Each structure stands twice: as C-alpha cells, then as structure tokens.
Amino acid sequence: MDRETLADELNDLRKQVSGVTGALIAGVDGLLIAADAEDRIDPGAVSALGAAQLGLSLTITSAVDQGAFRHAVVRGSGGYLAVYSVDSTALLVVLGDEGLDVTRLHRAALLTIERVRSILAAVIANAC
C-alpha cells in the first residue's frame, strides 16, 4: 500500500487547516493504514477508537433514518476529534486543538477524502 502518499495527504490537511494537530487513515476494522500525528498520540489506539465511533455513528444514523453517515465530531475541553467515512473500507480521523475551525476542516476533509479514495482504489486495482 502507498502509505507514504497517504501520509502526505494527511500532512497536507494539517497544513491547510489551522488547529489540526494530527490525522490518520484506518480500516473500518480499526487497523491503522497511515498517520500524521504528534508523538503524544498512539495512532493505533486512535484508529481503533475512530472505527468504534464510525460503527456507533452508522448505527445511530440508520436508527433515526438520517441517511448515509458522513462525519461525527467529538469536542472535549482540549480540542476535537472528527471521524469521516472514506468509503466502505476506510475512515479518516482528524484531531484538532481548541482553535480548530470545524467548518474549514469539513471543507478540506472532503477534498482529502476524494484523494484518499483514489489512492486506495489504485492500490486495490494494482493488487488484482
């Protein structure tokens, strides 16, 4: 898998949006695919938590008939964690500090997700 290209996309997201402190791509099973995160963060643990948030969010949006899940944002006293669905196999997790512009993050994340989808699709196509 082209983890370096994915990590570059995550780094670009961090540079584009003020307040982003880290990001990662994980499989829906919670396994880490690529990360651009601070040393104080355990990307493997955050991947698993992101997948759990995705599963819960999928269940909630289905139960309340709100259509397809797009993203969930958790805000704590120290910042944010946002989970985005990339496709049926992967998710994007973004960490941010208290100054994160969530609206700007959503716009930038959509572009990142499109590029990540393309990268993952190319990896799958080359594997076949």
From TrEMBL:
<protein>
    <submittedName>
        <fullName>Roadblock/lc7 family protein</fullName>
    </submittedName>
</protein>
<feature type="domain" description="Roadblock/LAMTOR2">
    <location>
        <begin position="7"/>
        <end position="96"/>
    </location>
</feature>
<dbReference type="Pfam" id="PF03259">
    <property type="entry name" value="Robl_LC7"/>
</dbReference>
<dbReference type="InterPro" id="IPR004942">
    <property type="entry name" value="Roadblock/LAMTOR2_dom"/>
</dbReference>
